């Protein structure tokens, strides 16, 4: 009996140690994020930061995400007008992706959880295979991955518009995207942070949890400005 009890205690202690290690990793990741009072602006694919005291100081021709119009997983139309006054996070994925997309979706879910029921923050995941990822496919994917309709929109639409926005407006592939042919497949792990006036305020590695935690911190900064 004593022998089985000792074995049980060893297993229990090992499990607790593993859990403590996981918790410590999470604490370390949070500690590595940097909380700042002001975020830079970005206006081109080099992502060179530009600093202004306020929106009023920006040049009138400073880069801004243009108008767009897509359908989400419910078949609702989502346009730039629906995001007026909102902070939004952008990424690009496809539902059949076996590689980086599941990890990106899991990390975007962390952002969703951090701002659950917060009507100031919206998440936009654009399909890069919209010809396949029609509304029913996106709805199934949303259900499988805990996507909260109303806050996190999985978007489909014209491929040309999605790729134009991705490469030439969001600069999601950074400067490498500007060298690609429009027909080349778009695949990137980057998340973009866009402010209430559709200016780019950050780029983050959507596969890296520390980077995603920094994104969450930066959203909080934008909310307070």
From TrEMBL:
Family indicated by similarity: Belongs to the SCO1/2 family.
Signal peptide range in chain numbering: none
Protein name: Protein SCO1/2
TM region(s), chain numbering: none
Domain of life (superkingdom): Bacteria
Organism, as annotated: Algoriphagus winogradskyi
Pfam families assigned: SCO1-SenC
Domain called Thioredoxin: residue spans: 59-224
Keyword Translocase: no
Keyword Membrane listed: no
Keywords associated with the record: Copper
